[in-house]
Specification:
Layout (H helix, E strand, L loop, with lengths): L2 H21 L9 H7 L6 E7 L2 E8 L10 E8 L12 E5 L2 E5 L8 E7 L6 E14 L24 E6 L4 E7 L60 E9 L3 E7 L6 E12 L1
Antiparallel strand pairs: 1-2, 2-3, 3-12, 4-5, 6-11, 7-10, 7-12, 8-9, 8-11
Keywords: Signal
Protein name: Fibrinogen C-terminal domain-containing protein
Length: 278
């Protein structure tokens, strides 16, 4: 075979194998990553094409071990504000401090409020949620301690029942996860009511039945836990949370940033979100 024919063959072979690799990720109209993995357990993590609301769209599938399962997780939310090309999700406001970029409640958020953003389930039916959220505390959040005179909001999921992040689905809201922020890791006579409920020596109120800007130590990443804070870092699975709903739904998922006082007094400013369903 002539040299030019060999070159042509090599190019055609490369193109053919590339197309074949792409086509191999296009099974006939799958509806979720779990379905793809179930059909072929050897599938790896990456972008797959699936039918979503009568359209064939690219979706990231995590096929490796995540939240104690490797049978196909579908990503529905992804945010990394360390990437300067990314913007805050609709409903949240950008805040900056030096090189730190994070998303919080709007600048004129009233006393005791939540600002929210919605992540579409893309119509995918799921019974489990696995996710990770990182944030920075701003000023003086106090976890689950409700500011004087506002105890009526403490047990209502639709209210600003925590200082931190509330993750829910459906209408009426159904609880998935709560991530709290507190002003101090030290428990003293003055702070014991305002630390996280997992902190040793806390005097926080009893949590409701639906709950099972410090820029050097991000919240909820399971790192840099000191002294009284150690128990908080023993939570299973950190930095991931995992909720088995016990039923199947295709509800969109709502993430709310809440505080029982104004944004200028306290906030939890989110800079990283990764959320999957199956």
């Amino acid at each position: 075979m002539k040299l030019e024919n060999l070159v042509t063959f090599a190019v055609l072979f490369a193109v053919f194998t590339s197309v074949s690799a792409d086509d191999s990720r296009r099974p006939p109209s799958p509806s979720s990553c779990h379905e793809i993995k179930k059909a072929n357990p050897r599938r790896g993590s990456g972008i797959y094409y699936m039918k979503i609301e009568n359209e064939v769209l690219p979706v990231y599938c995590h096929m490796d071990l995540l939240c104690n399962s490797n049978d196909g997780w579908t990503r529905i939310a992804s945010l990394n504000m360390n990437d300067k090309s990314q913007s805050c999700p609709s409903g949240l406001t950008l805040y900056t401090s030096g090189n730190i970029r994070a998303c919080g409640r709007r600048s004129r958020a009233p006393d005791a409020s939540c600002d929210s953003t919605i992540f579409s389930s893309m119509g995918i039916r799921y019974s489990q949620v696995c996710g990770s959220v990182y944030a920075y505390q701003y000023n003086s959040p106090d976890a689950y301690a409700i500011y004087a005179g506002k105890t009526n909001i403490q047990s209502r999921i639709d209210s600003a029942y925590i200082d931190g992040v509330s993750i829910t689905h459906g209408t009426p809201r159904k609880h998935i996860w709560s991530l709290m922020a507190a002003q101090s890791e030290k428990v003293t006579r003055h702070t014991k009511n305002y630390v996280c409920p997992c902190t040793a020596g806390n005097a926080q109120p009893k949590l409701p039945s639906f709950i099972g800007y410090h820029t050097t130590d991000p919240l909820w990443d399971g790192k840099n836990c000191r002294n009284n804070e150690v128990n908080c870092c023993k939570a299973h699975g950190l930095p991931w949370f995992h909720k088995n709903l016990g039923y199947t739904t295709n509800d969109d998922i709502e993430l709310r940033i809440c505080g029982d006082q104004s944004q200028t007094d306290e906030d939890a400013r989110v800079f990283f979100i990764d959320m999957f369903v199956k």
